[in-house]
Specification:
Helix content is 31%, strand content 15%. The protein contains 16 helices and 10 strands. Strands 1, 2, 3, 4, 5, 6, 7, 8, 9 and 10 form a 10-stranded antiparallel β-sheet that branches. Bound molecules: NADPH dihydro-nicotinamide-adenine-dinucleotide phosphate (NDP).
Length: 504
């Protein structure tokens, strides 16, 4: 039998009356001096912290990453230092647009946020289940997310806002097409891929840099809900993905993902036909084949959701020695915005919360602040340099500078170039080459279903503008969506395609 414990206040004071409050006589009003009532009510009132403004609904599990293939020719990151090496991880999945109580089977990308607790500090790879994203410049992010949330007047989700934004931002087309395929409604979190999404750098022991993309391929196989099944599951079990992940791990059916990378040299980047740092584009596999790296297995459920999932904080800024950023503008924006969001949501000392804390040495001169609960450096010096402690910056961790003279060529000090506005080739390839006949039909059905929710005075304008994008990606796609919407495709087709379209 487990040892009996005394009930105490938060200050550890044992007490007896936990269910009835002291009052002026058995039937009289309550007495202010019953401090335990205040403590219980006041703490309850403060149980919620701000929910994540995006990716609010999520599930997570701890696991192990094991290196299976040597990539030390590309990176000196200690996590990849030898085949067989194991690193503890935390993986949080999420939907993007919905609130904390929203349904897991919404049509939405899924977050795929990984924390690797490495001996060189925590590396966070914070991606999605898609290798691309809707926008390629972080200045658009807040506007875009507003369209995925609630209309300020109706307080309802609005297909009109969504398609208005997408139709005015053709760079979103690629991701919109992924989203409208059945991969937009994955069967829980175990049966989907994960991607680092951005281009990062790998740096080897000689200080040589290559560009890299990270792909986590599900070992469970891809499995999706159809649109109808996803809608039905919203009502039946809005927490489907949470339950599915938790129960699989409880049954010891540990889900696995195979980590693969694509590598591009600095020289290749200069001549590649697409901007390799554009988050709306993929790197074609035939040009940049996938290389095996390791296996990620989730094998431990969190014991407490709030402590270990709600308080988990991931930041793409957190890269470790041997891994570095790229000029991907979305990545650059997220380097700022993620730690900023955590400071707002969890406080400036969020990295000391146990789930976020590096299990290895942390030595610096950051002190004080809200919720500093770890001893705050004790009596050790709180300034640098000093004559008392032995903390020294280690020269072997000097940053390797980005490509010499290459910054301007790569566009670091410029804005998006008009010459890089091919928004249609890759979505067209996706439609023609990747989707089978049934997938194409499903895509068109899902698109027309979603677009049929567009309403209001701008309805026709938004629909026509979006149809033009589908036509530009593929004439057959434009014709099929127009037809499914009950619109004469010949009338909807942009002028430059009309002649060709007549031959289709
Ligand atoms: P490939 O034929 O080598 O790759 C096609 C990829 O598409 C595979 O990774 C496949 O994933 C994935 N896929 C299949 N169905 C869907 C879907 N409904 N939604 C999202 N992805 C899907 O060709 P390329 O590398 O030349 O790329 C061609 C097009 O494929 C791209 O323009 C892009 O639209 C899409 N794509 C490319 C990826 C890349 O990194 N190169 C990654 C994902 C999509 P699976 O592993 O399940 O077979």
């Amino acid at each position: 039998m487990s040892e009996e414990k005394k009930l105490t206040t938060a200050a550890g004071i044992p007490y007896y009356y936990n269910e009835d409050t002291m009052s002026a006589g058995p039937r009289g009003p309550l007495l202010l001096q019953d401090f335990i009532l205040h403590e219980k009510m006041a703490h309850f009132n403060r149980e919620r912290i701000p929910e994540r403004v995006v990716h609010a609904k999520g599930s997570a599990a701890f696991g192990t990453f094991i290196v299976t293939h040597d990539i030390t020719r590309f990176t000196k990151a200690k996590i990849f230092s030898e085949v067989g090496k194991q690193t503890r991880t935390l993986l949080r999945f999420s939907t993007v647009g919905g609130e904390k109580g929203s349904a897991d089977t919404e049509r939405d990308p899924r977050g795929f946020a990984l924390k690797f607790y490495t001996e060189d500090g925590n590396w966070d790879l914070v991606g999605n289940n898609t290798p691309i994203f809707f926008i390629k410049d972080p200045k658009k992010f807040g506007d875009f997310i507003h369209t995925q949330k609630r209309d300020p007047y109706t307080n309802c989700k609005s297909p009109t806002m969504m398609w208005d934004f997408w139709s005015l931002n053709p760079e979103s087309l690629h991701q919109v097409m992924f989203l409208m395929s059945d991969r937009g409604t994955p069967y829980g979190y175990r049966h989907m891929h994960g991607f680092g999404s951005h281009t990062f750098s790998l740096i080897n022991a000689q200080g040589e840099r290559v560009w890299v993309k990270f792909h986590f391929k599900t070992a469970q196989g891809i499995k999706n809900f159809t649109n109808d099944q996803a809608v039905e599951m919203k009502g039946k079990d809005p927490d489907f993905a949470q339950r599915d992940l938790l129960e699989a791990i409880d049954r010891k059916e540990f889900p696995k993902w195979n980590l693969k990378i694509q590598v591009m040299t600095l020289e290749e980047a200069k001549t590649h036909k697409y901007n390799p740092f554009d988050l709306t584009k993929v790197w074609p596999h035939k040009d940049f084949p996938l290389m095996d790296v390791g296996v990620l297995e989730l094998n431990e459920n969190p014991q407490n959701y709030f402590a270990q999932v709600e308080q988990a904080a991931f930041a793409p800024a957190h890269v470790i020695n041997g891994i570095d950023y790229s000029p991907d503008k979305m990545l650059q924006g997220r380097i700022l915005s993620y730690p900023d969001a955590h400071r707002h949501r969890l406080g400036p000392n969020y990295e000391q919360i146990p789930v976020n804390k590096c299990p290895y040495a942390v030595n610096n001169y950051q002190r004080d602040g809200m919720m500093r609960v770890d001893g705050n450096g004790g009596g050790s010096p709180n300034y640098f340099p000093n004559s008392f402690d032995h903390i020294k910056p280690d020269e072997s961790y000097k940053n390797v500078p980005p490509p010499a003279g290459g910054n301007h060529e790569l566009g670091w000090y410029d804005r998006n170039a008009d010459t890089e506005n091919d928004h249609y080739s890759q979505p067209g390839n996706f439609y023609r080459q990747v989707l089978g006949e049934n997938d194409k039909k499903t895509l068109v059905k899902n698109i027309s279903g979603a677009m049929s929710g567009i309403s209001g005075p701008k309805k026709d304008e938004i629909i026509n503008r979006q149809l033009c994008h589908f036509f530009r990606a593929d004439i057959g796609l434009g014709m099929a969506v127009a037809t499914a919407l009950g619109i004469n495709p010949e009338k909807a087709m942009p002028a430059q395609h009309a002649e060709m379209g007549a031959q289709v």
